[in-house]
Write a sequence for this structure.
């Protein structure tokens, strides 16, 4: 063991503030805001990153002047601080003049900003670590809850530094307005991720970030098949009916009912329109092998991730989804869709007095996950047994909380499965009934079910009836 020398200096913590760096950055902006301030903004430096509150206040005024199109110089900043009645608290005119006289190099502002941000992140991480340690010592009631809170806190520091503050609408209004203008006159434009089905996109605008979508249906209607259709269309643009120019997004499939091998077989059949029964029984011709090889190659390149953990809890699902999103971001990719098959098979984080409370916790957690990761969460749901042919929102099992949390609820219906169809009148016919749409119209979409490959396609009379 090596002992430190008696007069050796104490180790310097990287989380300690460097006042000189903060002063250099502010002085450079005062001296040459035209070159310096855009670098700070591009570095995503915010007011809360400054250790000294006065420095954060000065920077906030600079941003306000810049956003208003006003000059950002010594005179303008002094006047703005005086109007805010903050001039004295930041050190007065003399301190601003000192910053101006001792300014750093404008071309180095990006470097200064990154140093300030790094130290701010370390301070936040240090605080979170201390909070976690305190909670560990206090004998938490459930370790799983503590693990989830700790993981969420750390991911929040890295992925969303500004999510802990209220955001004024002016910060985002320009982007929203420009997006609306860009879509003007484009009848087929969508704002979300393409579902692969043209008329479904026309009703929903695609899968929207932060939305919780519930796909309901009675057993045998094809809920899993349709969900996998969506997964393929999101991850493989060439399989979409339209919008093939929109890049692929990654998909995470959490299957609580089927194993990974079964899901992969279904995905292969959907991609290449192979016969699922022949594939499972090994009755495959040489020609089919060639087509299967092509389908396999396409699926191998698709950004689809599968987890077949049975009876997974919302906490476990959120942890896995967070890690996947982090890995994808590090590779410059994005997670667009999470599929859960299906909701009633999930295990609650804690025991409740009744099943309805458990479902409320699960559906609320899935909605929170969609918002936290800014992705679409599509969860399948079983329906209550009913003599009625047409499903309704009340048919959702423990429907109160599911209906309340969901942004979109639609049901898949195949009449051949519920009616005696000796004449094959309903063979292959399918309907997708959009019963709840928080941000748009409801409607009915005609589809066609391909039995051999267990997938859905646009029907020859494929259309949408709004308001159904």
């Amino acid at each position: 063991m090596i002992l430190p020398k008696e007069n050796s200096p104490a180790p310097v913590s990287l989380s300690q503030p460097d006042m000189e760096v903060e002063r250099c950055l502010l002085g450079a902006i005062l001296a040459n805001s035209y070159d310096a301030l855009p670098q700070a903004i591009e570095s995503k430096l915010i007011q809360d990153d400054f250790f000294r509150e006065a420095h954060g206040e000065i920077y906030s005024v600079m941003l306000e002047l810049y956003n208003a199109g006003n000059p950002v110089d010594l005179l303008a900043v002094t006047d703005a601080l005086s109007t805010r009645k903050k001039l004295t608290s930041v050190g007065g005119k003399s301190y601003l003049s000192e910053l101006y006289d001792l300014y750093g190099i404008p071309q180095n502002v990006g470097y200064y900003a990154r140093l300030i941000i790094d130290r701010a992140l370390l301070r936040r991480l240090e605080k979170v670590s201390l909070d976690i340690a305190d909670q560990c010592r206090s004998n938490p009631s459930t370790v799983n809850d503590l693990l989830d809170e700790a993981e969420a806190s750390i991911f929040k520091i890295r992925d969303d530094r500004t999510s802990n503050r209220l955001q004024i609408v002016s910060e985002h209004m320009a982007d929203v307005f420009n997006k609306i203008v860009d879509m003007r006159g484009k009848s087929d434009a969508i704002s979300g991720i393409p579902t692969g089905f043209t008329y479904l996109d026309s009703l929903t605008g695609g899968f929207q970030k932060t939305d919780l979508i519930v796909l309901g249906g009675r057993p045998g209607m094809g809920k899993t098949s349709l969900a996998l259709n969506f997964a393929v269309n999101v991850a493989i643009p060439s399989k979409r009916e339209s919008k093939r120019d929109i890049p692929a997004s990654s998909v995470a499939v959490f299957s609580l009912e089927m194993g990974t091998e079964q899901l992969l077989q279904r995905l292969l059949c959907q991609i290449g329109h192979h016969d699922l029964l022949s594939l499972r029984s090994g009755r495959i011709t040489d020609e089919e092998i060639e087509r299967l090889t092509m389908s396999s190659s396409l699926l191998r390149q698709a950004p689809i991730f599968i987890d077949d953990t049975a009876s997974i809890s919302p906490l476990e699902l959120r942890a896995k989804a967070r890690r996947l999103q982090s890995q994808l971001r590090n590779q410059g990719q994005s997670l667009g869709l999470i599929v859960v098959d299906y909701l009633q098979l999930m295990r609650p984080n804690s025991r409740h007095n009744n099943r309805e409370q458990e479902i409320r916790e699960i559906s609320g957690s899935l909605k929170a996950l969609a918002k936290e990761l800014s992705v679409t969460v599509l969860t399948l749901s079983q329906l209550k047994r009913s003599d009625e042919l047409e499903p309704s929102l009340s048919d959702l099992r423990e429907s109160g909380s599911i209906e309340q949390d969901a942004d979109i609820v639609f049901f898949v219906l195949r009449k051949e499965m519920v009616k005696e169809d000796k004449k094959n009148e309903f063979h292959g016919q399918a309907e997708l009934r959009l019963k709840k749409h928080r941000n748009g119209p409801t409607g009915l979409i005609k589809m066609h079910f391909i039995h051999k490959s267990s997938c859905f396609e646009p029907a020859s009379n494929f259309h949408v009836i709004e308001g159904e």
In short: The first strand starts at residue 212 and ends at 217. Strands lie at 212-217, 250-255, 304-307, 335-341, 376-382, 408-413, 429-437, 443-450, 455-458, 464-466. Residues 19-112 form a domain with the DNAb Helicase; Chain A fold (CATH 1.10.860.10). Residues 109-137 form the longest helix (29 residues).
